[in-house]
Amino acid sequence: MIRMLIPLLVFVGLIGLLLISLPTAEQRRQVASPLIGREVPNFTLPSLHEPEVSYSTADLRGQPFILNVWGSWCFSCRVEHPYITRLGEEAGIPLVGFNWRDERDDALTWLSRFGDAWTFHMVDEEGRAAIDLGVYGAPETFLIDHRGVIRHKHIGPVDETSFADLMRRIEEMRQEAGA
Amino acid sequence: MIKHAVVSLSAALTLVVTLAAGTLSSPAQAQADERASHPATEEQRQARPVQQGQMGGMITPIEPLPFRNSLEERRFRALVNELRCTVCQNESLAESTAPLARDLRMEVFALLQDDRSDMEIRQFMVDRYGDFVLYRPPLAGHTLLLWFGPILLLLGSLIGAFIVVHKRRQALK
After folding, report:
1. Which of B10, B35, B36 sits opposite A11 (nearest CB)?
2. pLDDT, tens digit, 9 for 90 and up, residues B113-167
3. Which of these, A55, A67, A111, B151, could form a disulfide with A116 (CB 3.0-4.6 Å)?
4. What CATH code is assigned to B47-138?
5. How many of the other CB atoms lie within 10 Å of CB of B20?
6. Of A26, A127, A93, residue with least CA distance to B107
7. Would you say the pTM of this structure is higher than 0.80?
C-alpha cells in the first residue's frame, strides 16, 4: 500500500516545487548587481544641457545622491516619470540623470515635454560608463551614499511601492551623512 | 488493479501539469521581455548588421572587427560565446542583436586590443554583471549542488536500481 503511494508523493513534490518557483520566476530574472556595497565607478561625462561642461561621479562625494538611468527611447521611463519627479522634489538629495544611448535633441525634447526634475544629466552616448555600472536596461535607479558606496539598485520603473522603499532608504542615507 | 490505476493516474497528472507549466510560463516571459526597454541603435533602425559567420554560413550578428591576428579572433569568438547577454538572458553575446550585447562585444574587443588575458576579461564582466554572465559558472560553495547534483542523481538512481534488481533476484530464488 505504501509502495504504490510513492509515485503520488513524487507528483505532490513536483507540484510543490512548481508552486514555490512560479511566483518568484520574475524575481529570478532580475540579475542581482555585484556592485551593491561597492564604490560607484568613477567616470566623467558631458552634461546634457551644456555639452561643454562635464560631470564626474567623484564630484558628488560627500553627499548621498540618486542616479537614474533613462533614455527618451525608453517607454518605461515615461511610466516612472511622475515618481522620478517626486523623488526630485521630495528626496532632498541630488537626483542625477544618466542619459543612456540617446540622441541629445531627442532627450531635450523629451524633458521639455514631460518635465525635468533632475538636478543635472550626464550623457553616456557610447554606453561605456553604463557597462561599468552594470546597467542592462532602462530605467534603473541607483542610491549612492556620502562615502560613494552604491547602496541600492532598483531595476525597472519606479512605482508607488518602490517609491516608498526608495524614500525610506534615502532617509537612512541622509541620517548617516548627517551623523 | 488499484495499484496500476494509482500509478498511471499520477503519471498522467504529472505530465499534464508539466505541460501546463510550460505553456503558462511563456506568456509571462514575453510580457517581462516587453517591459524591459532597450535602446535601438542606428544600425538597427536601418538594417541589422548581419554578416556571414564562419560556422558553415550561419548568420551571426557580429560585426566585422579589425583583429590583429587569427588567434585574437579565435579568442574573441570563444569569449563572446561563453558570455551571456544579460538583457536577453538566453542568448550569448555572440548570438544577440541587442544593442547592449553589441556594446559588450565592443568592450571585449577593446580589452583584447589592450592585451588583457581571457581570465581578466571574464573577471571584468563578472565584476559588473555577476556570475550570471558566465555560461560556465565557477566552482564555489553555492554552486556545488549545480555541478555535482546530476552525478548525485545518477548515483542515487543507480543504487536504487541495483537494490530493486537485487531484491527481485532474491525473490526468484
Report:
1. B10
2. 999 999 999 999 999 988 888 888 888 877 888 889 999 999 999 999 999 999 9
3. A111
4. 1.10.8.640
5. 11
6. A127
7. no
